[in-house]
Every structure is written in C-alpha cells, then in structure tokens.
C-alpha cells in the first residue's frame, strides 16, 4: 500500500524503503488503492489477495537486492 500510495503521488520510489510495523492510511484507502492497481475490473477477494501477495514478494526482493540499492548503483539504473 505504501509503495502504491507514493507511486500515485509521484514520489521517487528508488529511495523509499518499507519499515516493518509502520502504518499509513485507513483500511478503506488501502482497499481502494489495491482495487485501482490490481488490473481486474471486479476482482474477487482471492484475486486481490494474490495481487497483494505477489506485489509484496516483488517489493521485498527489490529492497533486498544490491542492484536496486541507490547507494550501490548510484545513477546508473535511473528509473529502473
């Protein structure tokens, strides 16, 4: 949710990193954001769960990758 919220607001996501336990927004805002980005017109709860699960795995792996660390790659992969 935090990544999608910042993406919609035009923030640079290259420098953002999720902090465990941090809470932003309301459950309604979170659900609205997921519905907006999941890519399915009328998703089931299972489809929303799969979307959020997959997105979470991808973002977690991205944060853990040295190749996505802005301090390591500096500006060589700008916008990647």
From TrEMBL:
GO cellular component, one term: cytosol
GO molecular function, one term: ubiquitin-protein transferase activity
UniProt keyword list: Ligase
Gene Ontology biological-process entries: negative regulation of non-canonical Wnt signaling pathway; sprouting angiogenesis; ubiquitin-dependent protein catabolic process
Protein's UniProt name: RN213 ligase
